[in-house]
Amino acid sequence: SSALRGLTGELKGTYYPLTGMDKKTQQQLIDDHFLFKEGDRFLQAANACRFWPTGRGIFHNDNKTFLVWCNEEDHLRIISMQQGGDLKQVYSRMVSGVREIEKKLPFSRDDRLGFLTFCPTNLGTTIRASVHIKLPKLAADKAKLDSIAAKYNLQVRGTRGEHTESEGGVYDISNKRRMGLTEYQAVREMQDGIQELIKLEQAA
């Protein structure tokens, strides 16, 4: 928490430990869709939720565009986000935040596997670049949407992540590959794939 509290400039914000969190703060984090819950049965089976909620917390900057989840699944889950389509700004903020945090908290990295994570599917760059988007025509046939997305190495999920449903016709679409490419290439792959999906939606 001291490393996060030391962030400055655009990244400056507040750390909220889950232990002892008051109801008002809890409700605000729920309203902002920032508060994470205890893991599902798969994480529990893997002992990812021991001693819950001790040692867990959420940090976000004053603009609510940069978040860090502490000990939810991984030790740190670093998130950069904002409304609109300015991926460059989102990515630049992410890079800046990661560099500042790494000055105080070195990340575990393997020469062959890349950055080490709790879930093996995130090994490599660990980066998941995603957008929330409505594709009503393509989504009319979810299996077809999944098939088309797979051609561009994209994954279609509900708006609240893995194993969740779409809300209001909005899907979370992200890059599927995180190993064997750079962070920039992963983000670019997502951007290129999304642009192709938009073209197909408009032509449908």
From TrEMBL:
<feature type="domain" description="Phosphagen kinase C-terminal">
    <location>
        <begin position="1"/>
        <end position="204"/>
    </location>
</feature>
<dbReference type="GO" id="GO:0004111">
    <property type="term" value="F:creatine kinase activity"/>
</dbReference>
<dbReference type="InterPro" id="IPR022414">
    <property type="entry name" value="ATP-guanido_PTrfase_cat"/>
</dbReference>
<dbReference type="GO" id="GO:0004054">
    <property type="term" value="F:arginine kinase activity"/>
</dbReference>
<comment type="similarity">
    <text>Belongs to the ATP:guanido phosphotransferase family.</text>
</comment>
<dbReference type="InterPro" id="IPR014746">
    <property type="entry name" value="Gln_synth/guanido_kin_cat_dom"/>
</dbReference>
<dbReference type="GO" id="GO:0046314">
    <property type="term" value="P:phosphocreatine biosynthetic process"/>
</dbReference>
<dbReference type="GO" id="GO:0005615">
    <property type="term" value="C:extracellular space"/>
</dbReference>
<feature type="binding site">
    <location>
        <position position="77"/>
    </location>
    <ligand>
        <name>ATP</name>
    </ligand>
</feature>
<keyword id="KW-0808">Transferase</keyword>
<dbReference type="Pfam" id="PF00217">
    <property type="entry name" value="ATP-gua_Ptrans"/>
</dbReference>
<dbReference type="InterPro" id="IPR000749">
    <property type="entry name" value="ATP-guanido_PTrfase"/>
</dbReference>
<protein>
    <recommendedName>
        <fullName>arginine kinase</fullName>
        <ecNumber>2.7.3.3</ecNumber>
    </recommendedName>
</protein>
<feature type="binding site">
    <location>
        <begin position="128"/>
        <end position="132"/>
    </location>
    <ligand>
        <name>ATP</name>
    </ligand>
</feature>
<keyword id="KW-0547">Nucleotide-binding</keyword>
<keyword id="KW-0067">ATP-binding</keyword>
<feature type="binding site">
    <location>
        <begin position="157"/>
        <end position="162"/>
    </location>
    <ligand>
        <name>ATP</name>
    </ligand>
</feature>
<dbReference type="InterPro" id="IPR022415">
    <property type="entry name" value="ATP-guanido_PTrfase_AS"/>
</dbReference>
<keyword id="KW-0418">Kinase</keyword>
<dbReference type="GO" id="GO:0005524">
    <property type="term" value="F:ATP binding"/>
</dbReference>
<feature type="binding site">
    <location>
        <position position="33"/>
    </location>
    <ligand>
        <name>ATP</name>
    </ligand>
</feature>
